[in-house]
């Protein structure tokens, strides 16, 4: 693009990119969108929404991340009736502040990816989410605490901090060096999030450990976890795009569509979610089968966990007209375990109960104290389980020949391993034709 050239684009009231000059159209494609679809470049979309809502022309600098370079733009947004015209009066491409050409650095990031953790913060740097993807990271900061209270940020070679510069410019960042409260060195990267009115709502990103110890004499057994992490990372992004695009088609967000085509797209989205669940299960399997697998120990309210798990699956239950009976708000039973892992177990147990229960039935979730053990029971009205199969269902990939309801056959194996790692267990009480009752037990506080 010449310095004097002006690039133009038009956005409608629903945020769809109606037309765009070449460079903007390419940027839209790189962000996963198309001309005619929703504007997928967050910074441009936010500016267009704000100008349209306020019905006044706006001008401001915008920085977008391309696949191999950062793009500095000066953008004018001019409302024209129900549409907004965008004019880019300056377009300057420059290398990203953190080079992506260093193969060794890319490989190190890939290796570290399985050991990192995801975070999300609000505009005041308070954590909304802190979620470890692998068990190697423990003692994460609690939601509500400040990101800067857990991380000591380091300045870069220019004496600046990428995370603060990104906040000021409302752009993505990478390569923020920091020392965590666990004593490890991390590299932080993040993407901005925006509200519908264009206001910055926070950042989401990942913390990657910088030091990765490689085995001195790698063999097949030692290489497998790295292979698993690469496979996990390679599958998630394309599966996510498949699901998102299939949902867009099936919900006819881009316009009317023949009903059979919409149904095909819904089937694709369902299959994609099944594959994503399988990827999640395989990632968990890799973690819990390691000899050094551990969970953190903290005080948890199992009644609260039961209510949360039920809330997460309420829509799934409603789709099959199944009623979930969860503990009331006054119920309280404190135990010891890891909050995230215990919630994961309960989501799996309740999800299985919904999957294998007849439509219109009831799944009851209760809590009770038995001796020095806290128990959460999940009782369904399904077909039940024969006595000879009650232990088999906890084996890897065991589904008792069921093919109609999806599932990987790993959920119960993972759930029992997690429960036992927390000092508890998962058992089943059932008779054929009389439903099943799964019980998660954890030691009392």
Strand arrangement within the widest β-sheet reads: 7-6-11-10-9-8
- Name the beta content range: 25-35%
- Give the N-to-C terminal Cα separation: 65 Å
Helical residues, percent: 25-40%
Mean pLDDT: 78
Element pattern in H and E? EEHHEEEHEEHEHEEEHHEHHEEHEEHEE
Report on the biggest sheet. 6 strands, antiparallel
Summed up:
By secondary structure, this protein is α+β, with helices and mostly antiparallel strands. The chain is built from eleven helices and 18 strands.
Overview of the molecule:
Strands 7-6-11-10-9-8 form a six-stranded antiparallel sheet. Strands 2-1-5-4-3 form a five-stranded antiparallel sheet, with helices on one face. The protein has helices at residues 22-30, 42-54, 103-113, 147-150, 162-169, 220-250, 259-288, 302-312, 314-319, 339-356, 411-421, and strands at 7-11, 17-20, 58-65, 70-80, 83-94, 117-121, 127-132, 151-153, 173-180, 185-194, 200-209, 298-301, 323-325, 334-337, 362-370, 373-379, 425-430, 436-443. It is an alpha+beta fold and 445 residues long. β6 (117-121) and β7 form a beta hairpin. The model is unreliable at 97-114, 133-137 and 212-224 (pLDDT under 50). α6 packs antiparallel against α7 (259-288) and α7 (259-288) runs parallel beside α11 (411-421).
